[in-house]
Write a structure and sequence with these properties.
Blueprint (H helix, E strand, L loop, with lengths): L6 E8 L1 H5 L4 E7 L4 E8 L2 E6 L9 E3 L8 E4 L5 E3 L4 E4 L8 E6 L5 E7 L19 E7 L2 E6 L2 E5 L13 E2 L7 H7 L2 E3 L10 H10 L5 E4 L9 H4 L6 E4 L5 E2 L4 E7 L8 E7 L2 E5 L17 E4 L19 H26 L3 E4 L4 E2 L6 H6 L5 H11 L3 E2 L7 E3 H6 L7 E2 L14 H12 L9 H9 L7 E7 L11 E5 L16 E7 H10 L4 H4 L4 E6 L5 H10 L7 H6 L3
Parallel strand pairs: 13-15, 15-16, 16-17, 21-22, 22-23, 23-25, 28-30
Antiparallel strand pairs: 1-10, 2-3, 3-4, 4-9, 5-6, 6-7, 7-8, 9-10, 11-12, 11-26, 12-13, 14-24, 18-19, 19-20, 20-21, 26-27, 28-29, 30-31
Helix pairs in contact: 5-7, 9-11
GO biological process, one term: CMP-N-acetylneuraminate metabolic process
Pathway: Amino-sugar metabolism; N-acetylneuraminate metabolism
Keywords: 2Fe-2S, Cytoplasm, Electron transport, Iron, Iron-sulfur, Metal-binding, Oxidoreductase, Transport
């Protein structure tokens, strides 16, 4: 019997108005057509949800009047109590966890509750762990989110970003990868790429690999926006890309299999992976916000996840209103701390034997981004690992480039000094120079492109982008390196209600955003039909908004939903020849 592809069933939909009227704390809902009941817990912008069904004997929960914090509900059958903010039963204590539903927001800020089926697909055809010989399973950290796994006689690599920048020119590698990184990639039997962001899918890295092994097997999840949507444009020749369904074991050999899972918050683009060798699971949640909707296998041999924060233009690239330097610094401090405690709690709940924080080792090293580098403080992996040690007896590993974890040794004896081999004395750990030139030349080439001799490129581009019927006006300003308006650069308004390009702001009530972008990056993005992550996550814009609201629909469209093929500029230019 084959395992079946994991599907998501919609259990309840709320309209944008119902979502807007959710109150802080506990909200009860009934789906009138199925007569099934649900609970949604709201904590500012974070939502959790579950069926209103007690695990004990299926009783209905009601508000717990003894609960002053507004976090718990009480079962009408036997007074069992559930803390909806953590989804744990508090009476009887330490008994069960409530199964969570996936909360998905739609284009208009409506909401759906989804149930993943099967919820725990890794339980299909379970295998008992066998003893591992020393040296049989070795995990070598290369850099950022890139791990080289030796699994018996097979080699698997995660997310190779080993040269060049990510997000246009905003992110550069913090760690110096081992000098033999290309040989290691060439020797891999398979590569897993978690998602399309350029710190995971690095075309400069894959270009070097493809010149030596164009047929290397690469595996990606079946996301709504294909991971390799931009392969043709990239000029990289890879001939063996495999898109696999979610929640299905992929058998590599008799001892090795893997399964790709979707993210509950960004199912259209994010994935994570479970690799299993002789019954020992390695869980890599990568950048997922709620991997597999929050349900994950407990007690895996090794878990790795992101931890650092700072992977967003918010709030460092914002100004005006509340966005003073003090507010931004305080916000970053608070958010990083929340993330640190969330990750520590997750590790405590899942109880892996070993935990490794990774995928946060980047630096804004280009001199023009000095402000971002100094203000966008990231979490320290050692601080997280110390927090985990206080809460549990999980073994932690702070990886350094070229360090090797011997899984068999550490599982047998966590105190074995040979369990983790650090890189040799004198190995360069941190990069101190980056080859900016060639990558900036590519961006600069777009500035002089003949498209931009004709101001009608603006209408052509935004028509191609396909976002309209939304009450938002943006002002786009091309700038120099320091975000000052570029003499002779474009400065224009776009009104998304009717997709017009007025000379001045309309007289009706409308939200307004001003987006200043470095001219090389915005023109490169426009010319090549790239996603706006390069601008936003890459810190290449400065933003002001009035009122101060996040326009999810607008940003989601330009960061995830742009057309898969770039604008047809050659036909555009024919009008002028």
């Amino acid at each position: 019997m084959d395992s079946v592809e994991q599907t998501a069933e919609i259990l309840l939909c709320l309209s944008p108005a119902e979502v807007a009227s959710l109150k802080e704390g506990i909200n009860f809902f009934r789906n009138k057509s199925t007569s099934k009941d649900y609970i949604i817990y709201k904590d500012k912008s974070f939502l959790r949800a579950c069926k209103n069904l007690c695990k004990h004997q299926g009783g209905l929960f009601i508000k717990d009047i003894e609960d002053l914090d507004g976090r718990s509900v009480k079962c009408t059958k036997h007074n069992w109590k559930l803390d909806v903010s953590t989804m744990k039963y508090i009476n009887p204590p330490g008994s069960f966890c409530q199964d969570e539903l996936v909360v998905e927001m739609d284009e208009n800020n409506g909401l759906s509750l989804l149930e993943l089926n099967p919820p725990n697909p890794w339980d299909f055809e379970p295998r008992s762990p066998e003893d591992l010989a020393f040296g049989e399973v070795q995990i070598t950290y290369l850099t950022h989110a890139c791990m080289d796994l030796k699994l018996g006689d097979k080699r698997m690599v995660f997310d190779p970003w080993l040269i060049g920048p990510a997000f246009a020119r905003g992110w550069w590698l913090l760690h110096e990868p081992p000098s033999d990184w290309l040989e290691r990639l060439c020797q891999a039997d398979l590569i897993y790429i978690s998602h399309m962001h350029s710190d995971h899918l690095s075309y400069p890295t894959l270009k070097q690999l493809s010149e030596r092994r164009p047929d290397i097997p690469i595996y990606v999840g079946n996301t709504e926006r294909p991971v390799f949507w931009n392969l043709n444009q990239s000029g990289v020749q890879l001939t063996n890309i495999n898109v696999v369904p979610f929640g299905v074991w992929q058998q590599v050999d008799k001892n090795l299999r893997f399964m790709i899972l979707m993210d509950g918050v960004h199912p259209e683009m994010d994935t994570c992976i479970i690799v299993e060798y002789k019954g020992h699971k390695i869980l890599n949640t990568v950048d997922c916000t709620r991997p597999n909707g929050g349900r994950l296998p407990a007690k895996v041999a090794l878990m790795m996840s992101d931890f650092a924060g700072g992977a967003s233009g918010f709030p460092m690239t914002f100004s005006g209103g509340k966005f003073t330097e003090e507010w931004k610094a305080q916000f970053i401090k608070t958010e990083r701390k929340k993330l640190l405690h969330y990750k520590a709690q997750l590790v405590k709940d899942l109880q892996p034997r070993i935990y490794c924080p990774f995928a946060g080792y980047f630096v804004e090293s280009h001199p023009s981004d000095k402000y971002i580098k100094e203000t966008n403080i990231k979490n320290d992996p050692n601080e997280l690992n110390n927090l985990i040690k206080k809460k549990s007896d999980v073994v932690t590993w702070t990886p350094r480039p070229g360090a090797v974890l011997d899984l068999g040794r550490v599982l047998k004896d966590p105190t074995d000094s040979k369990g983790i081999t650090e890189p040799p004395e004198g190995t360069k750990i941190y990069k101190d120079s980056w080859d900016f030139g060639p990558y900036l030349n590519i961006l600069n080439a777009a500035i002089e492109d003949e498209i931009f001799l004709h101001s009608s490129w603006i209408k052509e581009y935004f028509t191609w982008a396909g976002f309209k019927d939304y009450n938002l006006v943006i002002r786009m300003i091309e700038t120099d390196e320091d975000f000052n308006p570029l003499p002779g650069g474009y400065d224009y308004l776009v009104d998304f209600l009717d997709l017009s390009f007025p000379k001045e702001r309309p007289s009706r009530e409308h939200p307004y955003e001003e987006i200043r972008s470095r001219v090389d990056v915005i023109r490169h993005v426009v010319k090549n039909g790239l996603l706006w992550d390069d601008l936003y996550i890459g810190f290449q814009t400065r933003l002001q908004r009035d009122p101060d609201i996040y326009h999810h629909l607008f940003w989601n469209h330009f960061q995830i939903k742009l057309p898969l093929t770039p604008p047809n500029w050659s036909s555009f230019l024919m009008h002028f020849s």
